[in-house]
Amino acid sequence: MTLRYIPPQVVDRQPVVQLELQDVVEEEGKWNVAMIAYIIGENPGYNTMKRYIALHWLDITEPDLFLHDEGYYMIKFQSMVDMHKVFYDGPHTINNRPIIVKIWTPDFDLSQEFLADIPLWVILPKLPMSCWGSESLSKIASAIGKLLFADECTTKQTRISYARMLIEVNITKTLPTEITVMDPRGRKLQQQLAYDWKPNYCDKCQMIGHICPAQKGPKMQKNEKPKRRREQKKVTYEWRYKGPVGVETTNKVNR
In the beta sheet, which residues pair with residue 38? Predict the structure, then answer.
């Protein structure tokens, strides 16, 4: 890279840097096969993300991984085909947390992105066996959000204790804990819902991943009573006469 001095323009007595199309088009071309990856919640770390890519994205050439200080990853693929394969094979999760992926654009700014709909693993414990059909599961999931897919054990019905599906839900709203299901006979079932992981959402900041201290409120234990302040006892002083005080005399020795 060769750098040199190029005088800036002066507009209203202020220096203004004017970039030409040829100045940026080459650099933008280097990143047109890049994708943004953002993990909801705590960042798993660069090495963990590197291992995840090596273990799960086996059908592509290993991409270059970059971690930005703002907390997101830039993944630079070796070809457009590789990038599209990863993008359309999603959704992706790491440690049961969704990886939000987006194809990079020159005007990308994470601070301007507002993530409202994110994929979450939803569990349906003790779901009746008659409701395990694809149509029944699709209808139940659609009442929660946008169904993406079910896990392998649910699809093959090798685990019958609960069904588990990845559903895109709006986390700015309260996540439901149960849903009403009506069978063909008109009987209603209150199906309980659970989540592998639920993100914190701050209404004040409109951000995912934290709750402002002002919204949390004081922590109070159940049946906890406010502590009473111990009353201080009054202290009184009484003066008593103990008689005359003796005067000690000291013999001085002249040397």
Answer: 100
| Parent domain of 63 | 27-111
In a domain, 50, yes or no: yes
The reply to whether 58 falls in a domain is yes
User: pLDDT tens, position by position, for the chain (255 residues)?
Assistant: 788 888 889 999 999 998 888 888 888 888 999 999 988 777 888 999 999 999 999 999 999 999 988 888 999 999 999 998 998 787 788 887 778 888 888 888 766 665 677 788 899 999 999 999 999 999 999 999 999 889 889 999 999 999 999 888 888 888 999 999 999 999 999 999 999 878 776 666 655 655 666 655 555 455 555 566 666 666 666 666 666 655 554 454 454
Cβ 36 vs Cβ 102: under 8 Å: yes
CATH assignment of the domain containing 145: 3.30.70
Other C-beta atoms lying within 10 Å of the C-beta of residue 110: 13
252: phi then psi, degrees, rounded to nearest 5:
-95, 135
| Chosen domain end from 111, 138, 164 | 111
